[in-house]
Amino acid sequence: MRATAFALLAATLLPAAPKFSVVEASIPQMQEALRKKRVTSRQLVEQYLARIATYEDQLNAAITVNPKALAEADRLDRERAQGKVRGPLHGIPIALKDNIHTTDLPTTGGTLAFAGFVPPYDATLTRNLREAGAILIAKTTLTELANWTAGSPTPMVSGYTAIAGFSFSPYDPRRDPRERNRDGRPVHNPGGSSSGIGTAANFWAANVGTETSGSILGPSNQNMLAAIKPTVGRVSRHGVIPITADQDTAGPMAKWVADAAILLGALEGASSDPNDSATARCTPPPGRDYTKFLKAGALRGARIGIPRAFFYDKAGPRGGLNETEGKVMAEAIEVLKQQGAVIVDPADIPSVTDPDPANNVLTVNQCAGAPQAKGNDANCSVVFKYGMKRDFNKWLSSLGPRSPVKTLEELRQWNQAHEKMGAIRFGQSRLDISGEMDLEADRARYEADRAKDLRLAATHGLDEAFQTHKLDAMLFPGSNGYSISAVPGYPTIIVPFGMVPNTGGGAFPPGFDPKPVPFGVSFAGLACSEPRLIELGYAFEQATRRRKSPPGAP
Question: pTM here?
Answer without folding.
Answer: 0.95
